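Exam prep: given the inputs below (a chain plus S-adenosylmethionine), describe the expected output before reading on.
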Amino acid sequence: MILAGRREVRSFTRRERPLGLGALATRERLWETLAVPEREWEYLGEGPRQVVLDIGFGDGESLLTMAANDLDRDYVGVEVYRTGVIKVLRGIEERGLNNVRLVEADAHDLLGKIRDERIAAVQVFFPDPWPKTRHHKRRLVQGRFLKEVVRILRPGGLFHMATDWAQYAQAALEVVGAIPSLIREDEGRGLRPCTRFERRGLRLGHEVRDLRFRKTT
Ligand SMILES: C[S@@+](CC[C@H](N)C(=O)[O-])C[C@H]1O[C@@H](n2cnc3c(N)ncnc32)[C@H](O)[C@@H]1O
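Solution:
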C-alpha cells in the first residue's frame, strides 16, 4: 500500500512462489468454511466463546497444538504466508478441529477492524526479529501494534509474545513498560509448544523468553 507517496513499512516480505495445483485445490475446498471473511472481522469475539488471536502463525505448529488442547476457546490465526495458510488448512482438517479459523491478511488490517475489548488473548510467537538497526521499524511488536492490542483485549485479557531475540525482547519490554494498562506476568509458556523456531533459537544458544502481559480489569 502506498501512503502519501511513500511505501508503508511492513513487518513481512512477500517472496513466495505461486501456490501449486494441490495447494490451490486445498484452498478452494476448505477456505469457505475455515476462513473468517473480511465482512465478519468486526464481529470477532462477540459470541459467548472466548477468542484467541495467533498472529503470524507461520506453519501453524503452535496454533494447531494449542487449539487442540484448548477446545473451549476459539482460535483465529492470522498470516500473510500463503504456504503456511495451506498447511494449517490441511492441519485443521486432519485433526478435525472445530475451533480454528484463519485470516490471510496483514495483522494490522484485521486488528483495526475488531471492536474494543472483544479478544481474550493475543499471541505472537517468534515474530521476525528484523535484526539490522535500519529494519527495526519493520518489527511487528511495537507502539502502533500494541496500541491496537490493548484496545481489542478484554479486561483481564493476555498478550503473550515469545522470542529468542534478546534485543527484540528488550525493546518490547520497554514499549510495554510505558503502557499502564498492561501488567507483566511471569514468563511461563502456558500451552505454547516447542516449535521449529524455538528449537533453532536454542541450537544457536539463544535464550527463549515468554513475555506475558495482562490487561488491567
Ligand atoms: C518467524 S515466523 C514465526 C511463525 C510461528 N509463529 C512460529 O512460532 O512458528 C513469523 C511469521 O509472522 C508472519 N507475519 C509477519 N508480519 C505479519 C503481519 N503483519 N501479519 C500477519 N503475519 C505476519 C510472517 O509471514 C511469518 O510467517
